Amino acid sequence: MRPRGGVQWTLFGLFLVALVPVVGERYYVDLTTQILIYALFALSLNILVGYCGNLSFGHAAFFAIGGYACVILTTTYEVTLIISLGLSVLISAVAAAAIGYVCVRLAAMHFAMLTLAFSMLVWSIAIKWTPVTGGDDGFVGATLPDLISNPVSFFYFALLIFSTGLILLRVICTSTFGRAMIAIRENETRATFMGMDVRKIRLQAFTIAGAFAGLAGALLGLYNRGMYPESAFWTESGQVLIMVLLGGMHSFIGPVLGAAALYILETMINQYTEYWQIVLGVILLGVVLIAPDGLAGLLSGFRKRKDDSVTGVDSE
Amino acid sequence: MFGIYSKARRVFALEIIALVMGLGLFSAPSMSADTIKIGVLLPTSGGGASYGIPAENGIKLAINEINQAGGVNGKMLEYFIRDTKLKPAVASAAARELITKEGVHVLVGAVSSGVTLAMSEVAKQEKIILFAPISKSIALTESKFHKYMFQSSANTNIEGRVMAGVMKKVEAGKICATGYDYAYSHDFFASLESNLEEGMAIVDTFYVKLGTKDYNALISQLMGSDCDTVAGLIWGGGFVSMVKQANPFGLFDQKKFVWGAEVGSHEMSNSLKGDYPEGMWANSYDLWYSPLSDAHQAFLDDLAELEGQKETNMYPVTTYNAVKFLAKAIEISGGTDSDALVTALEGMAMETPLGPMTIDPETHRTETGEFWGPMKKIEGSDVLRMSPAEYVY
Amino acid sequence: MILNVENTSRSFSGFLALDNVNLQVAEGEMHALIGPNGAGKTTLFNVISGLISADTGTVSFKDRELSRMKPHQIVEVGIARSFQRVNVFPRNTAFENVQVAFIARNREHFKIFAAAYGKYTQEIMELLILVGMADDASTPAGELAHGKQKQLELAVALAANPALLLLDEPTAGMSIAETMSSIELIRDIVKGRNLTLLFTEHDMTVVFEIADRVSVLHHGQIIATGDGETVRNDPEVRRVYLGTEESES
Amino acid sequence: MFIQLMNSLALGMNLFIIAVGLTLIFGVLRVINFAHGSFFMIGAYVLYSVVKRTGDTALGFWGGIVVAMLVLGFIAWLVERFLLRRLYDKEHLLQLVFTFALVLIVGDLVKIIWGPLQHSISYPPGFGGATDLGISRYPTYMLFLILSGPVIAVSLWLILEKTRWGRIIRAARLDRQMLSALGVNVKAVYSAVFVAGAMLAGLGGALAAPRLAVEPGMDALIIIDCFIVVIVGGLGSLWGSFFGAIILGVATIFGTLIFGEWEIVIVYILMVAVLLWRPWGLLGRIEEDRH
What ipTM was predicted for this assembly? Predict the structure, then answer.
């Protein structure tokens, strides 16, 4: 990937997004804030899925951990915002490292299923640990510093966090570590015989992905002034996977597109019909069958070559 | 450089922006003319559909009625419904969208208390009234109370008290309590316990997780307890499953049963038919076969016409009343300013199909009752009915 | 001896793929491992490189025991390998294929803030020039001709800076002309860089042309080791290769 | 205690009947089918429609189960033949999203066809009461479930072990390429397995229906349990899911009795623990399934 190609465009894009509160109504400010949060979440997952080739089905666990950590810290313990944010990222990263340590021993579907198991464990704990998490009703009524308590200032706050996340993730993806992840995705055996400790690299990717998911979760918790167990449920992991798919894996910016498209789509269909499920379902079928490279693939008109040869694992 | 790097798929930020804007414009605010807009948040898909879809009928009926009578202060009412998907985060986002995009003046909803609590945060921030006709959690108007929150449901305080009255009637003796493991059941039983008469007590409490499908463990626990009466709060499909699984064990012949959570509704007895445990005391928001007054009968007739069936659902009356309260407040205050509406709603008394209701100016709650009575088989039908049904609060 | 395989056996669900193998490779030599299909050559490579573990026996490299090491640790101590079937990153360019190998060699695969762009350009281009692929740097590996992909694999293996190179059928699927030029290239590189080479090869002309020593593997056993002449005249080897036994299939 | 053991078995066998189709499909097609819960739901609803027409007769109930299976077989055939087939050589993620899309579509279709309210199906005639087992009386229908679990498991095992089709399916689990090299119509095998898996889901839905509320959302409730069963048992393993189901049954019943409402956490801890101990599940095959 060329790190320079598109930097100007990305900056320009962020600049345009920054104009939303200036030109758009309040609704668009809210909508964009929500999209930014989910876009960051999707970007973090794409580290694992798109770059490292690990299909995680429990990524929401870290989203929820970050979110709960942040609202609990700011509200229950009255920790200042910046420290809460930092700590929630740290907590998600530690959780991801611990869970990842176990999960990266497995490959493909077994990996996906174990991550699913862990995320459901996190979900059940969020529901049952009522004194801390608020239990089934969720943690309602988080406090926010005045500085970011109005929609526009929160929007810029979210945009700042998102941009930082985007740039950091971009740096990580174009780093030597990023190259190593791609190598593992393309051909794990070959990467091993280049001298890479594949498990450790996968664990590092898992931890980084978890940390950024936690950051996105923290933003969501602040935005909603609360965190709910649903954010750890398997459907949330499914939704963010769909975002990644919709936007296009193997593309850095694709998940941002996917998050925007899915979020807007869901909101829109809900506005027009009670039968949003059927409409969304048909659209997803269409994407999967007609445009499996997602929006990024469609937009750039780039057809991925058949990747039959990618798997070439040498054996006897 | 000279192309030594594989071609990353380049997506131009501009294209992203174009796409987002394009999709965004699609959903440009619907600027319908000068109407009063009500934002409605109900679960209309998945497991929540059985509550949300009937509840929407009450909104429709109230709005039709008001508009046919010329609207409020000359303005027509209009409602915008969003599916909460039973998810708090989805509901808060939808509530915000209704306020900022559709420009709704008031919010009505939702069903599950967790979802309503999340929406209440939005209402608080946006200074828009949230009227909760179904959610029973007392937290809405207690620990998480704020000025713009109103609750017209039969809340857990009232319900616990009313059930205590029923317990007296059935001479309950030792009681074991069972319900889903969440705030509603916990609050309800706390209220029940504090209202029980001398000589009655809750001796065992068994909680099961929300969404349980297999009730065998619970059934054994209930059969093993030496209580005389079971106080139950398992609702909806869970109640159906529980009853179906308990019948072969003969559980319902063993003890007396008093069941809250509106399992006395016609919908429930119609779905269980002959499998419904006869003699169980149950409750319901509304009963199509048990009109309280001419006004109630008129309401039921109108609803029957709207739903296309004589056996109407129980949920519509709750949302119907909510819309009526709000419309009256708008009429009195002469506009849609939230603070003026709050002032109008506080202490407001209104004639509803179920009799007079008053909003307490302090607590923002109403004294809402429910129909209570034992479920009996009737001639010529396999659907049980509450008989005699009494409206109590 | 730089590589010492002692009494190594490995079976796959009852089938004995390696049967008490002993093999010594001296520093600086070019050692060919030959034998009919299914003789266990690739299995032996896999055991040495750590992809699979042996049931019994030891493998040591520069007097270090390899059996408990993971594949990537074995690469670190100085053994690089190629694969019989082409095994590159098909969607990445030749340049990138080699670059990843450099990153791994310099233990930079954990560095999240070290930009990969432009890294090792000079070293990579030198290597590509060395294997005769200077013009193919920007071609995705999957689009290269088969012979070129084999050469790319060689470059990738070299990038790890090994002391011992394990090449599994380096000329498989090549034309005669390609085979000759490629084998000369390998010889030049190995001699020029003072490497040790252990390779398997089906083309006997090639084997006897370049190998200093040859070992013959048959039914999982080493049946002969020695210089070309010795092995060629070994009665057991002649029996195996000249078909007095029907196990050739 | 005896009753609780029976309860665990009944729940376990009920789950096994539902989940076995999921593991069968994964074993051969390598697809995690999220729509399995939807197939289960359709099975229950179709049975409801049949019983509603026939009344509570034995023929209506047992015939309805056959109808439910046939309907699902047909739906699954359509889905496999015209849609899923295009995705076998694609990434896992596409297949997951595909089945997830089916979940959404079926969820709405069921609501449109059968309405949002709960329905209920009575026990078939003769199965509504309890049977005296000497030690205690126990619901007849649950005894029937306890017995039908092993019967289904053994018949599937016999089909897999003893018939030509079974041999082909087992071979397809191990090596697809080899199979097509041997001249077997692999496409037809896949089709058949998907149809069979869906029919088993329908059977599971229909058999479970008398004990459950038939309502929208029942798909989402069951799918997680199915996943736990097949993951704990080992993806693709018939007997694995059999024992996985029994373990989940025991964990759920005794978890509730011992830990009360904390049972929900216990079940997931157990699942994680099994996977830590045996990453491929109890009877799963260790495999290098890179994609």
Answer: 0.87
Q: Find residues 161-190 of chain B whose CB sits inside 8 Å of chain A.
A: 181-183
Residue B251's contacts (CB-CB under 8 Å, 6 or more residues apart) are: B219, B222, B223
> For A63-71, what is the mean pLDDT?
96
C-alpha distances in Å from residue D214, one per residue of B46, B278, D199, D252: 12, 21, 18, 21
pLDDT score for B41 = 94
User: Using CB atoms, which residue from A124, A242, A313 is nearest to D268?
Assistant: A124
Chosen for mutation from A109, A115, A118 (greatest number of chain D CBs closer than 10 Å) is: A109
Q: Specify the CATH number for the domain of residue C181.
A: 3.40.50.300
- A164 CA: distance to closest CA in chain C (Å): 14
A137, A254, A270: residue with CB nearest B94: A270
- Name all domains of chain B by residue range, CATH numbers in brackets: 34-154+295-362 (3.40.50.2300), 157-284+371-392 (3.40.50.2300)
C157 and C97 in one domain? yes
Task: Inform me whether the pLDDT recorded for B191 exceeds 70.
Answer: yes
Q: How many CB atoms lie within 10 A of CB D288?
A: 10
pLDDT tens profile B116-137: 999 999 999 899 999 999 988 8
- With a CB cutoff of 8 Å and minimum separation 6, the contacts of C7 are C20, C21, C22, C56, C57, C58
| Torsion (CA) B24, B28, B29, B30 in degrees, nearest 10 | -140
Please write the tens of the pLDDT for every residue from A71-108.
999 999 999 999 999 999 999 999 999 999 989 888 77
Q: How many domains does chain C have?
A: 2
| B286 CB-side CA count, 13 A | 28
C114 shares a domain with C222:
no
**A141 contacts chain B (CB < 8 A):** yes
Tokens read off for C49: 């490189």
Find the mean pLDDT for residues B248-274: 91
Which of B147, B145, B116 shows the shortest CA–CA distance to B132? B116
- Cβ <8 Å between D3 and B54: no
C91 in contact with chain B, both atoms CB, cutoff 8 A: yes
Domain containing residue C156 = 90-161
Listed in order, strand segments (DSSP E) in B110-255 are: 129-132, 149-151, 174-180, 201-208, 229-232
Identify whether C74 is part of a domain.
yes
Q: Which residues of C85-102 are buried (b: 16+ CB within 10 A; e: fewer)?
A: ebbbbbbbbbbbbbbbbb
Residue of A nearest to D284 (CA): A110
Whether residues C102 and C65 fall in one domain:
no
| Among candidates B213, B218, B272 on the partner chain, residue whose Cβ is nearest the Cβ of D120 | B272
Q: Is residue C83 part of a domain?
A: no
Q: Do A180 and C109 touch (CB under 8 A)?
A: yes
Structure-token match 């394009």, residue found: B22
Helix boundaries (H) for chain A:
7-18, 20-23, 26-46, 60-71, 81-103, 108-128, 130-133, 151-173, 176-186, 188-192, 198-224, 234-247, 254-272, 276-290, 294-300
**Interval B206-217 mean pLDDT:** 87
Whether the CB of C140 is below 8 Å from some CB of chain B: the reply is yes
Set of chain B residues whose Cβ sits within 8 Å of the Cβ of A141: 121, 144
Q: Is residue C65 domain-shared with residue C45, that is, in the same domain?
A: yes
- Given C129, C146, C161, which residue is the final one in a domain? C161
Domain membership of residue C94 (yes or no) is: yes
Assigned domain for C10 exists: yes
pTM of the model: 0.89
The whole-angstrom distance between B247's CA and the closest CA on chain A is: 30
pLDDT at B305 over 80: yes
Q: Pick from A250, A261, A293: which is nearest to B23 by CB?
A: A261
- Domain locations in chain A as residue ranges: 2-231
For residue A257, the chain B residues in CB contact (below 8 A) are 11, 16, 19
CA distance A217 to chain B (A): 12
